[in-house]
Amino acid sequence: MSDERALALRAAEILYDKKALDIIALDVSHLTVITDYMVICTGRNAQQVHALCDEVEDTLAEEGVLLRKKEGQNDGRWAILDYGTLLVHIFHPEERNYYRLERLWDEGTNRLELPFIVPDEEKPFLP
């Protein structure tokens, strides 16, 4: 597994642990020169979008991965964290539905499997 792929999976795992919704990770290296991987997710509201951004940035910084650039976090509607070979897009639900980035970048064969996500039917029932 490449370091870039591992970074994309790590960012997705951080988002999952902070309860982000609809997380997808894509290998776009053959589609664009902008980046190699994209992770796209949704926060429930503007406050969670902020929290997800902070968590990814802080955790990856602690692990020695420094952020190149950050855009959009102030509004809490769509934030982008640029790590060079990885772009992390964190959307408010309305913006995710409007822009539908996965429609542009997901060609059906380039999604990364996220092994830490348990399908709903396998999750234990908690009363």
Topology:
Blueprint: H1 3-17, E1 21-27, E2 37-42, H2 46-62, E3 69-71, E4 78-82, E5 86-91, H3 93-99, H4 101-105
Helix pairs in contact: 1-2
Characterization of this structure:
It is a single chain. The chain has one domain (3-114): 2-Layer Sandwich (Beta Polymerase, domain 2). It has four helices and five strands. It has helices spanning 3-17, 46-62, 93-99, 101-105; strands at residues 21-27, 37-42, 69-71, 78-82, 86-91. It has a five-stranded mixed β-sheet with strand order 1-2-5-4-3. Helix 1 (3-17) packs across helix 2.
Helix content: 25-40%
Helical stretch tally: 4
Backbone CA Rg: 14 Å
CATH fold assignment? Beta Polymerase, domain 2
According to CATH, what is the class? Alpha Beta
Strand content: 15-25%
Task: List descriptors.
127 residues; alpha+beta; Beta Polymerase, domain 2; five-stranded mixed beta sheet; 5 strands; globular
Short description:
The chain has 127 residues and is an alpha+beta fold. The chain has helices at 3-17, 46-62, 93-99, 101-105; strands at residues 21-27, 37-42, 69-71, 78-82, 86-91. Strand 3 and strand 4 form a beta hairpin.
